[in-house]
Design a protein that fits this description.
Layout lengths: L21 H25 L7 H12 L3 E2 H8 L3 H13 L3 E5 L7 E5 L1 H21 L5 H15 L3
Antiparallel strand pairs: 1-3, 2-3
Helix pairs in contact: 1-5, 2-4, 2-5, 3-4
């Protein structure tokens, strides 16, 4: 349920679920983005050996997962403009991770496919990311990680 107020009216006292105070709500609002930033910094650092940005790594994952993607499909999957997808694919192609091929049924379209080198790099990145995630979340017990996963899943259910 979303609280709707006229634009000039501020609630005097918000009600939070049992056990959640104003300060714990503020804490969550501050802590979740901090955790996300920490993960993004780790992810960016992790990609340094391959000289890839997180954006480029996500594009490589899309191309490897959806073999024979159109540039427009890559853009849609990454939620970016087609022009931006072209730039990202240009970099991946320059590094030898992907190649452009003609679309088999549409002469106007170009497909993006992963090269064997690109598939190998993606697999290396996935292993490194998994190891890093295990390290990051190691402070949590198995039970806490499972609860966090369920909680985040609930929060992202409508995303």
């Amino acid at each position: 349920m979303m609280l709707r107020l006229p634009h000039n009216e501020v609630p005097r006292k918000m009600r939070y679920p049992s056990g959640m105070t104003d300060s714990s709500h503020d804490s969550l609002v501050d802590q979740v983005p901090r955790v996300a930033r920490a993960l993004r910094r780790r992810w960016a650092g992790l990609l340094q050996p391959w000289e890839l940005s997180p954006h480029q790594a996500r594009a490589l994952r899309v191309v490897c997962t959806h073999e024979g993607s159109r540039l427009s499909d890559v853009a849609e999957s990454l939620r970016i403009a087609p022009r931006s997808a072209t730039e990202v694919v240009d970099i991946l192609e320059y590094r030898g991770y992907v190649e452009r091929t003609p679309h088999p049924h549409d002469r106007r379209a170009t497909m993006v496919v992963a090269t064997p080198k690109g598939r190998d790099v993606r697999a290396e990145i996935d292993r490194a990311r998994q190891a890093d995630a295990e390290s990051f979340f190691a402070v949590l017990s198995d039970r806490e990680r499972a609860a966090l996963g369920r909680t985040l899943g609930k929060l992202l259910a409508d995303d």
